[in-house]
Amino acid sequence: MVQIRRMHTHEGGTVNSRVFITGGSGFIGESLIRALSEHHDVIALVRSEDAAATVEAAGAQAVHGDLFNTGQLTKMMRGCQVVYHLAGINGWDLPPQEVGEMWKVNGLGTQIVCEAMRRAEVKRLVYISSVTAISQKSVTGASDFRGSAYGHTKLCAETVVQNLGPEGPEVVIVRPASVQGRRLGGSAKIMLAMAKGSLPAFVQSTFYLLSIDDCVRGIIAAGERGTHRGIYTLTADSYTTEELYLQLELALGTRIKRARILPGWLALSLAKVITWTCHRTGRKATPMGTEKVQAMLRDNADFLCERTREELDWHPEPTQAWLTRAIDWYRQEGLL
Predict the structure, then answer these.
(1) Average pLDDT of every residue of the chain
(2) pTM above 0.85?
(3) What does the alpha-carbon distance between residue 13 and residue 15 come to, in Å, rounded to a whole number?
């Protein structure tokens, strides 16, 4: 049986609204809970004791449940005004069996969350998508280019929430770029290798980066002020490979050994071999797998976010501020 505590009164005597979050134990989710819990009662869906400990330490009430159990989710969501849906699998160059699981969680899981919200009469959904959902052209000009599997699962989920009927909740979609902070996932692995001067080869690319603090502020602003069916992209600054090296050097206070820049066709050919080998041997794909290299070679001009800045009055902090904090964390962890 799901038990939800009564809303409590925070300092100042104000009784705040109740919000529900999925994926609260993840990198973005944990930080989002810390910010939301300052003004709201936060209920967080969890599957494990470790996840429960994480969300409770961040300021939420943990409720154990199953993302695919509509009835269970409905009971948990009753009395909540907003649902922040972050639960999902983020993976690149995954083997086929793991891609299937990603489609199930990111696609079907979102459908079930929406149905539970309808039954529980929750009025607003903030769906956390990704800039990878934005359609891009093939780097080779091929008409059958499909992009990453992850990007397609997020685009599918966006379609689900945008097509909810009049009985469904108001929907706001947030598309963060590559979120940076105290983490080693995603492009942070590449940035750390660049900072160490240990990246042997790379491609000429453009990085679209975002600090975790700016990401959370953007999500909350979209939840509070975003328009129904509005899509808000969160990107702070963009840097070419060389420009990112320069930014890292400023934060480090020293010169960095540069990677050899490979032609796009060669990098993509090598990436296909790496991905095939990883799938054959059961090893985890490197940050230089096929999908990742394709993404780095594409023109991502659509990642810009003028609408977010204008409508939500969202203004990210300067790159050197958050990048210096990230470098300090790398050093504290003995990574540099």
Answers:
(1) 87
(2) yes
(3) 6
Q: Are 231 and 135 in contact (CB under 8 A)?
A: no
Query: Chain-centre distance of CA 163, in angstroms?
Result: 22
Beta strands in the chain (DSSP E): 18-22, 41-46, 61-64, 82-85, 124-128, 170-176, 178-180, 201-203, 206-211, 230-234, 237-240, 260-262
> Bridge partners of 178?
209
- Helix, strand, coil share of the chain (percent; to 5): 45, 15, 35
pLDDT tens-digit map of 259-273: 999 998 898 888 888
Domain count within the chain:
1
| Local confidence band at 4 (pLDDT 50, 70, 90 cut-offs) | very low
User: Pairing state of beta strands 237-240 and 206-211?
Assistant: antiparallel
H/E stretch holding 45 reads strand 41-46
Look at residue 9 in the predicted model and tell me its pLDDT.
39
Question: Can you give the C-alpha Rg of the chain in angstroms?
Answer: 20
**257 φ, ψ (degrees, to nearest 5):** -70, 125
What CATH number is attached to the domain comprising 230?
A: 3.40.50.720
Q: Is 216 a member of any domain?
A: yes
Residue pair 216/32 in contact by the 8 Å Cβ criterion? yes
Rounded to whole angstroms, the Cα distance separating 285 from 262 reads 20
Q: Which two tokens stand for residue 172?
A: 């706001």
- Between 61-70, 130-139, 309-318, 327-336, the lowest mean confidence (pLDDT) is in 130-139
Residue 182 maps to a domain = yes
Could you give the angle at the alpha carbon of 192 between the alpha carbons of 301 and 247, nearest 5°? 55
State how far the Cα of 278 lies from the Cα of 181, in Å rounded to an integer. 28
Tens-digit pLDDT profile for residues 76-109: 999 999 999 999 998 888 888 889 999 999 999 9
d(CA 32, CA 108): 23
Containing structural domain, residue 241:
66-328
CA distance readout (Å), 273 to 97, 144, 279: 19, 20, 10
